[in-house]
Amino acid sequence: MLNRLNVFTKIALLVVILLILVLFLYTYSNRESVRVIEYEIQNNTKNQLSTFADSVESNIYQLSLYGMSIGQDSSIQEYQRPDYKDIPYERAKAGIAILEKMNLYNAASKWHSTITLYFPRMKKVISTDDDAYIPYEENQFTEPLSQYWTYDDNHFVWHTTVPTTAISNPSKAKLITKISFPIHHLKLLLDQNKLNNKGDPFMFHPDFGLISNSTEKSTMKSVLPSLQSAKLEAKGGFRTTLDGTEYYVSYIQSKSLGWYYVDYVPMQQILKPITISRNLFYASIAVLIVMSILVLYTLFRSVQVPLLQLVKGTNRLSAGDFSVRLNHTAHNEFSLLFARFNIMAQRIQELIENVYEEKLRRREATLKQLQSQINPHFLYNCLFYIKNMARMKNEKAVVAMALNLGEYYRYITRSENDMATIREELAMVKNYLEIQSLRLERMHFTIDVSHAILDKTVPRLTLQPIIENAVIHGLEPRAENGEIRIYGDCKDDVYMLTVEDSGLGMSDKQLEQMKYDLLKPLDENMGCGTWNVHQRLSFLYGEGAGLTYNHSSLGGVKVDIIWHDNTNK
């Protein structure tokens, strides 16, 4: 299929394929780059959040560990001695020692927490909270205690009991330890994480809302609806669009607190350099496409169009149309080529016309020579007819034959004018047919030509060869009566004379051969009469003029003589 395409189409197709290939490769490369960067951003966000979660969990684990180990402290055991019931001083001394140890732990711990010890059996409370007096209430621990950290009034609280099995029934516990810390510590860690990692972390709980860092951006609150509507797992991430900006939200659930550590990053801001680079590339491709179209258009106008004109001109020249000329207004190499083509076509046309005219003149001279020579057989037959009629004392027949024979030979031997009117041609034909009617006696003819064309001119001896063929080859071989009809008229400046006979006729193959013989060069096997008539008409009146052969309704052959009378214009 590519072999059928011209050079310009192939070049245009290659340019389009090249642009599509470059666009496809860059688009694929850009998508892969974006995908890799997005993957790294997501992993980095998750890793940072995981580091932050580990830091929080480590501090909470230390608090929990201290809450479980404090019940084994010797000071606690001593404080609960039964014999101290009657020695308040010793019990107060042991209480002070416990409080000092708890304050010492707070001083050594990263987070300052409030540690409160409840002694249900003794109805006593020891707490590191110096600002508040905490009395022991009988109905405070009637309900089972939570085994996890709980959130209450901006504090996280965790309980443990001694023994540990008393967590479900605190009233039976020897010791209940309550450890709480404010969310301020978490905010400090969030601020530190934001400073180190340039993120915007916060903590989220579906029931309690969020714990933000000190900035408290509005974007952070905008993320809340997406978090509340999402089905959160232990950890993961999702994409969301806020105010036309796409964000990646990563989260990890705290095993201790039950809250989610959340961080989000604007994907578009991070990918902005790649997006700008992509847009610049697409703009470059657009400019390249426009430039390619301009180049292809220029190539088409400057090369392809002249080539197509040259190909069409060459095809017309090879088909025999030597009048073709090429027009090219641009001043380039094709102008010179077109000028040389036009000169070549003109010279070929002049040469062909000269040769053609020379052949026509030679054929016409041959025809005139043949027609000017007296056909001995035809003349002998006419003379024998005159002799027989004279012997039979048929004076009218002798006179008629002599007069028609004289007029006939006077017309065919005249050479002063190559053109004759239809009226003159019909008069000569009538003389010829009357001679043949006198000889054959079984032939009759009719002439019905419109007066509108009687004064139109045609080459001399246009009708005579056709009438002669109709008589000799059509009527004479038949024993029956014969008929020849001659009629003519004009329509839309097209003139037509028709000759029909009732002779032997021709087959379709013979008719096609006759039509073919009119177009090919003359040879010794062809009669030159009708060929010469056809060639003279074609040369004189142009395309469409000449002879056509068809079957006649009389049974013989129908010959139409057609021409446009442009010689009188």
UniProtKB/TrEMBL annotation:
Residues 301-353 form the HAMP domain. Signal peptide: none annotated. InterPro entries: Bact_2-comp_sensor_kinase, HAMP_dom, HATPase_C_sf, Sig_transdc_His_kin_internal. The chain crosses the membrane at residues 7-28, 280-300. It is found in: Cell membrane. Its main location: membrane. Keywords: Cell membrane, Kinase, Membrane, Phosphoprotein, Transferase, Transmembrane, Transmembrane helix. Pfam families: HAMP, His_kinase. SUPFAM superfamilies: ATPase domain of HSP90 chaperone/DNA topoisomerase II/histidine kinase, HAMP domain-like. Gene3D superfamilies: HAMP domain in histidine kinase, Histidine kinase-like ATPase, C-terminal domain, PAS domain. It is a multi-pass membrane protein. One of its GO terms (molecular function) is kinase activity. CDD domains: HAMP (cd06225). This is Histidine kinase. It comes from Paenibacillus polygoni.
